[in-house]
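hey so u asked for the seq, here:
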Amino acid sequence: MNCPQCQNEDTRVIDSRHTQDGRAIRRRRECGSCSFRFTTYEYVEIQPLLVIKSNQRREPFDRDKILKSIAIACSKRPVSSAQMSQTVDLILQDVNTFGSSEVYAKDIGELVMKHLKDLDEIAYVRFASVYRKFEDVKEFRAELDDI
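ran it, structure tokens below
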């Protein structure tokens, strides 16, 4: 690792810690030449995940898209942003268990509903009503009866 101050290659790690979410390692380094201290992060490199839309078009997986949808469903509900972010992390873990670099959007939608049902039933029904495109009250009532 080159020093960002003097570009010297002689740097050493003086401290290593896992980040709070456990997905990276934070390393404090010190340059052997100029004694400049800096931080680096080490992440696991994974193959980019592609989402297959209903029209068979593929697009890169976007964590923020799921978080935004969950935030809309949880609007004015007693759900913290930390809980929403944790839910997205759980969904991503489930997606990664598929073992594929491509996942269908409908499978992601089902995972979102599964986790929202555990998080907040009202948010679940809100999301399901949009995701499943309820056309009348009967469909809505059937979903409520399933809860």
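The two ends are 54 Å apart (CA to CA). Residues 50-146 form one domain.
lmk if thats what u needed
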